[in-house]
TrEMBL record:
Pfam families in the cross-refs: DNase_II (PF03265)
Name this protein carries in UniProt: Deoxyribonuclease II family protein
Taxonomy, superkingdom: Bacteria
Lineage of the organism: Bacteria, Pseudomonadati, Pseudomonadota, Betaproteobacteria, Neisseriales
Record field: transmembrane: none
Species name: Chromobacterium piscinae
Amino acid sequence: MPSQLAWRRACLSLALAAAALQSYAAPSPLLDASHPVNWWFAFKFNAASFPGCGNSAQVNSCQFGGSPQSYASGKSFSQQYVYASSSQPSLSQGGGCVGDTPTDPVGATFSQIYNGALNYVVWNDQFYDDPAIPSCSGNACNAPWGHSKGVLAWDDQGNGVVMQVSTPSWPASGNAHYPRTSDGNTLGCVADNDVEVSQHFFSLKLSHADVLALLQGLANASAVTDPGNPQIVRNGGPSDIQAAVGQLGQQSASAMPQVSKLSSGVTLISKPSALQVPPWQLVSAELGGIPLRAATWWEASKSYAIPSTTQSGAPACWDSSLPAPGPVAIATSGSWAGQTFSLKGGLGKSFNHAKIGVSTGGGIPYAIFGDMNQEGALSGNCASAQNGRGGLFFALPNAALAQSIAKLIGGSTAASAR
């Protein structure tokens, strides 16, 4: 009977639609190709403390383009790492070469973007002319451009995943159809030896509203990208997201921080370049004036190295519209598995370029992942160094992770100013 046939066809259509929904997977942070999580964090060691790769692995696949570099054969690199995730929030050591395999968090998550069909934005103030950014002078983009690096990808419904990185010159292409023309696009396979010093990576699952908030934060921070270059931007999906992407690649005139509570409970803080205050004091202030401990590229010999502070209260370089910050301690060494490593900044295989921190009081245990070094000034030249640049911070409330990172960076501390 026609009515029965129509009923069967309707049932079949519903079954196919249900199957399609079940098979659809929104982009997510991945621990490996088949293990999505809500977030993960990875800390890559420096070459002096943990040289080479875990499990005696070699850097040779260069899965996102490039070729093994001479610094790798000379062992002046490290792709050993520790990581944690929403499924296991305490740090544990990973195997192989981080970023160079489909079975490590960085490699698996980036592969989902680079070898997929997602929309994306890649930003980095140190692309080194591949791609060239017309609005920047030289092969890197200095102040007042944001000191910020990462990749955001989203599907046609607006669901997304972000990976914040601290690595210059990586990533610098968002899709295999638009490879870099003069360099590689894989950790350990890039001309700049950004696997010699310590680095960090943080990935977070995002809702449509989260993607929009992040794009607005990137614009506020003057993040370096180019919406007209398909190597680093593929714009699509919901119209509000497309409009926000179109606002990127410009220097923001904003002098106000943007603070957003994401669906995951993570607090996103965007510092604009024109807000000329110490970066990690700003984070403390926006999290309720809590005390922090931070490990960044911090060179004691430089006049713009901001010392530790032991007292709450606004420094001279501050904006009266902001709440007062708490103390900020500068970590200068850490340890893992009995091995001590430096957390100071500088050139050479024993230094740190990650920008991570933890709360050390205030009730809520935060793990914090940032773009910015604690360089600038508490008083005097308030536009100095990173005071005069923009960047993002992700503050994740998680006691186990915060405790684990606190132990990782819990060595010596820079002398205090007050």
